Amino acid sequence: MSTYGSISETRSLARGGGQHLLVAVDEPDNAELLSTTLELAGYRIRTAGSGTEVVSRLAEQRFELVVIDAELPEMDALEQGGRLVTHRPPVLLLTAWDALDRLLPELGAGERDYVTKPFRIAEVLARIQVLLRARGGDRDGALHYADLVLDDTTCQARRGRRTLDLTPAEYRLLRHLLINAHKVLSKEQISRYVWGDFRGDNAMEQLISRLRRKVDQEGVALIHTRRGFGYWLGRAAG
């Protein structure tokens, strides 16, 4: 497995809060690389080198997330033994192909994502953070990105000290962008999440425009357009 990035870049991206992660990669060098960088990023790591070991580790201990290589030996053990595991942590799959329907349904509990190989360490860290947020990994029960906070218990959003007056559609849109931070979402993907069907470009552009005015009224812009592809939330590089 080839990777881009270095251990040093994790120091500026470290956002872990001591969560327990299981890293399942059979190649010793790559397992050590991922374990070391994730530990530097603030996570507690255990490793596994096969599907059988993954099931064994999950039976022994609760993990907030599993990072697993699609080429891990004994992958069939996950489907066979996964039914015996009482908790279902989110799964981040390291894969050479874009196939979400192959993301270990017996192991995952709905929170699943993937990073294609060769991958950047920074991308792995970003996707882990998104999965943990979606699972409710923040201790206060809120979703965070920079100074943006969404509280699902009250359906309220804040940017810094400023409360955002959002409609239900705007709140759903912002939440979807936040839990998929740094990932470009198409208009159709967003529309089906917000409204349950595709309402066309004009409706989506108007909704994005209204939300952007409220969220990015002050401070650094967080909502961005990638022309021809869709929208994403995060701090732009540069």
UniProtKB/TrEMBL annotation:
InterPro entries to which the protein is assigned, alphabetical: CheY-like_superfamily, OmpR/PhoB-type_DNA-bd, Sig_transdc_resp-reg_receiver, WalR-like, WH-like_DNA-bd_sf
Compartments, record wording: Cytoplasm
Record-annotated Response regulatory domain positions: 20-132
Location of 4-aspartylphosphate modifications: 69
Pfam families named among the record's database cross-references: Response_reg (PF00072), Trans_reg_C (PF00486)
Keyword Phosphoprotein belongs to the record: yes
The entry's DNA-binding region: 140-235
All copies of domain OmpR/PhoB-type, residue ranges: 140-235
Record's keyword annotation contains Transmembrane helix: no
Key words, A-Z: DNA-binding, Phosphoprotein, Transcription, Transcription regulation, Two-component regulatory system
Domain of life: Bacteria
UniProt protein name: Response regulator transcription factor
Annotated source species: Streptomyces hokutonensis
Taxonomic lineage of the native organism: Bacteria, Bacillati, Actinomycetota, Actinomycetes, Kitasatosporales
